Amino acid sequence: MIDVDHCKKENPLAFDSDGSTIIATAMLACNSALTVDDVAISIRPAFTSLGVSWELLKHAAHLAEALGVGTLHSIESNSSHAAIELESEMRFNAGS
Predict the structure, then answer these.
(1) How much of the chain is helix, strand and coil, in % rounded to 5?
(2) What are the pLDDT digits (tens) for 56-86?
(3) Distance separating alpha carbons of residues 59 and 66, to the nearest angstrom
(4) Is the CB of residue 37 less than 8 Å from the CB of residue 73?
(5) Which domain holds residue 36?
(6) CB 76 within 8 A of CB 87
């Protein structure tokens, strides 16, 4: 999906409790000036409502902050009410 370079692009993964199955992923991509970072999270349906998305988004925010990124954009589907609610809880600003 993305070519991770650990400078401008990251792809953290979340595994189930025994470490055998990927249950969620976050994809982060910064612009060349490291001023804006986009993040998208995908989670297996069986693992929603367990706080995994919250932790991945929080981790993404920490990664962006460590890089000195000023703006973090979260990318989601307009039909994903849970994602929009999560972003609201984490104090993201709604935008287009």
Answers:
(1) 30, 30, 45
(2) 888 988 888 898 888 888 776 555 566 567 6
(3) 11
(4) yes
(5) 9-89
(6) yes
pTM of the model: 0.75
Q: Is residue 62 one of the residues assigned to a domain?
A: yes
Q: What are phi and psi of 23, to 5 degrees?
A: -110, -20
- Asked if 30 contacts 65 with a C-beta cutoff of 8 angstroms, the reply is no
52-67 vs 81-89: helix crossing angle, rounded to 10: 50
Kindly state whether residue 16 falls inside one of the protein's structural domains. yes
The number of distinct structural domains making up the chain is 1
**In the predicted model, what is the mean pLDDT of the chain?**
82
Q: Which CATH number does the domain housing residue 74 bear?
A: 3.40.630.30
Distance CA 69, CA 61 (A): 9
2 falls within a domain: no
Give the CA count within 13 Å in the CB-facing half-sphere of 76. 22
